[in-house]
């Protein structure tokens, strides 16, 4: 497609039409041959058929008036004879011709002429290819994706392609031949023209809603500075797609984190059969299909977030469930976290900007956990968004409409906080349209066993353990315990017992001491049996029988396991069972 005459060889261009005459032939014969064949020169050979020189029509025109008809060629040939091989380059041939002021070079191979390179061949070959190359370059320049601008050393515009016309709304006819500063006083072209240093990936906005990346390259040819070429890539569409992709990535990251969180959180469903929890579930199902705000209250650990998530799932809305811990957000980050921010909104802000909770939760549910911890100035900003259903990002001017259902949760009395001036009354009524107060675990004792089995199954799977058996005595103790930390404390206790369980069985002696101390049944029953008599031997006998029975219960009648629990030989256990008449 393109050519470089430094690489083009003589054999590809030479003219194979030439005239050879003997040195004794007449000048008239030479003239006649040249005119007949329309060739400008004749090469002269000697008796040995070796080329001796050349005579041209130009040479003949200088001496024509002083010659006779029969004069032989040997008298006038130019003996300054220079030739080239077929593998020489056009560039070298051109240099030889210029240096020696000649217009042709014979091409010799094995002492014979095989062709001629003339100045005309070089010129014609060059211009034919130059024209073709110009057409090709014109096509490339006008169809390349970037906007191209070429200026010379004085700043005059030499190339301005179609994409440059479209991007800057300046026709080629207006700008070609004029100084670039007349149109762009502070252009990157002009800066590189002064510094002669390359500038890459420079971002600018030539007009509203357009984003462009410019690369400017100083052009040097054989060490001489010739001008500046700039390529301007319109990245408006790419940037818009990138913004959409960032939003999608933000949503995807949130979904991934939520999936991991919910997968590891074993409160996937509300578990319980007690009348109190069934009543709360019934209310939740009724309000789920509406868009009203819900306040979920209750002691810490009663499962308020799980309950809120179930309301969201049951509602069937298309958006996400976004949980927010209000107590964990620093005051100075409240607005950027809730409303998001645009690029460059503040020092340290991401160049990409960030979506806030309200954007992430659009058409879904925003769960405000520990709402009572929200400072008053934050409450005012939150109230404004809930009233107007619109907001703007930090550092942004565009108002963003929002369609978010608010579910909040607290373990405090918001009524008392309103009375004390620690919570805005107007926000309270905005959030507390329907209140669902979850009962503590001590008021739903019959659900303890359901929860224990649920946690055992989930946690065993999580920890790669076999689901252990648990004795009825252990279940009774756990049911009687007060569970001040509610479901969260129960789950932690079950995980503790699961990890410590040996032989896939959970025994009473594995229970945490604070549970045993509070319930008291384990030690109290033994003590009551012991102090029925002050007879030491009888008391020891009663204690041994009690412990043996407990060990056999725990081991489900397996005497080998029971002897290990009691830390006595199996033979001793057999003896005592027979001696005390213990029946299994």
Q: Estimate the strand proportion.
A: 15-25%
Q: How do the strands of the widest beta sheet line up side by side?
A: 7-6-10-9-8
Low-confidence stretches: 263-268
- Give the number of helices: 23
Cα distance, first to last residue? Answer: 101 Å
* Count of individual beta strands: 19
Helix coverage percent: 40-55%
Major sheet description: 5 strands, antiparallel
Rough outline: elongated
The radius of gyration is 49 Å
**Mean pLDDT, all residues:** 83
* Structural class based on helices, strands and sheet pairing: alpha/beta
What does this structure look like?
It is built from 23 helices and 19 strands. It has 584 residues and is α/β, with parallel strands linked by helices. The protein has a five-stranded antiparallel β-sheet. A five-stranded parallel β-sheet has the order 12-13-16-11-17. A hairpin with a 5-residue loop joins strand 6 and strand 7 (157-160).
